[in-house]
């Protein structure tokens, strides 16, 4: 990808990182996401799995729900989703269901990543929708947030 194209993604990944910081502020695993249409952010979300005691409360699902409410549609056509961590199988499934065009993620997830690491649900030919995927945007910032969070957590134990 050219330098100019890569730079276009940075403000939106920064917005996803800001969401992740909101999660961290309430002692949740710092993962954040935004949904973008054109140059407008129409959905934001951060992980609140502990706070809500909800296994579905992933950043991506919250951002997708907000974007759907904004557009009053379940199809998020031409939308891009930015997320600090590679999507899990549940979120990758939701991304396909919402017909999102492009996913940009920060750091890969060796334990649950379904955008190419463990499997690639976003680009499965047998599904009726495929998503363009770009990984590694602000990877270091996104990854460091997570490793520092878990380091602090272990330090307390
Ligand atoms: Zn997820």
TrEMBL record:
It catalyses: adenosine(34) in tRNA + H2O + H(+) = inosine(34) in tRNA + NH4(+). Belongs to the cytidine and deoxycytidylate deaminase family. ADAT2 subfamily. Its EC number is 3.5.4.33. Binds 1 zinc ion per subunit. It comes from Paenibacillus ehimensis. InterPro entries: APOBEC/CMP_deaminase_Zn-bd (IPR016192), CMP_dCMP_dom (IPR002125), Cytidine_deaminase-like (IPR016193), MafB19-deam (IPR058535), tRNA_aden_deaminase (IPR028883). Homodimer. Catalyzes the deamination of adenosine to inosine at the wobble position 34 of tRNA(Arg2). Its cofactor is Zn(2+). Keywords: Hydrolase, Metal-binding, tRNA processing, Zinc. The active site is at 60 (proton donor). CDD domains: nucleoside_deaminase. The lineage of its organism: Bacteria, Bacillati, Bacillota, Bacilli, Bacillales. One of its GO terms (molecular function) is tRNA-specific adenosine-34 deaminase activity. Zn(2+) binds at residues 58, 88, 91. Residues 7-153 form the CMP/dCMP-type deaminase domain. This is tRNA-specific adenosine deaminase.
């Amino acid at each position: 990808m050219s330098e100019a194209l890569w730079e276009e993604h940075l403000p939106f990944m920064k917005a996803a990182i800001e969401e992740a910081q909101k999660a961290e502020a309430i002692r949740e695993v710092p993962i954040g996401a935004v949904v973008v249409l054109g140059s407008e952010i129409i959905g934001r979300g951060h992980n609140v799995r502990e706070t809500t005691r909800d296994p579905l409360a992933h950043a991506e699902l919250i951002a997708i729900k907000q974007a759907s409410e904004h557009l009053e549609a379940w199809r998020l056509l031409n939308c891009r989703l930015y997320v600090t961590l590679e999507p899990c199988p549940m979120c990758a499934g939701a991304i396909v269901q919402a017909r999102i065009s492009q996913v940009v993620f920060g750091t890969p997830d060796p334990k649950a990543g379904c955008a190419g690491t463990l499997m690639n649900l976003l680009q499965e030919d047998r599904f009726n929708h495929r998503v363009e995927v770009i990984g590694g945007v602000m990877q270091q910032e996104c990854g460091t947030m997570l490793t520092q969070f878990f380091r602090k957590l272990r330090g307390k134990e």
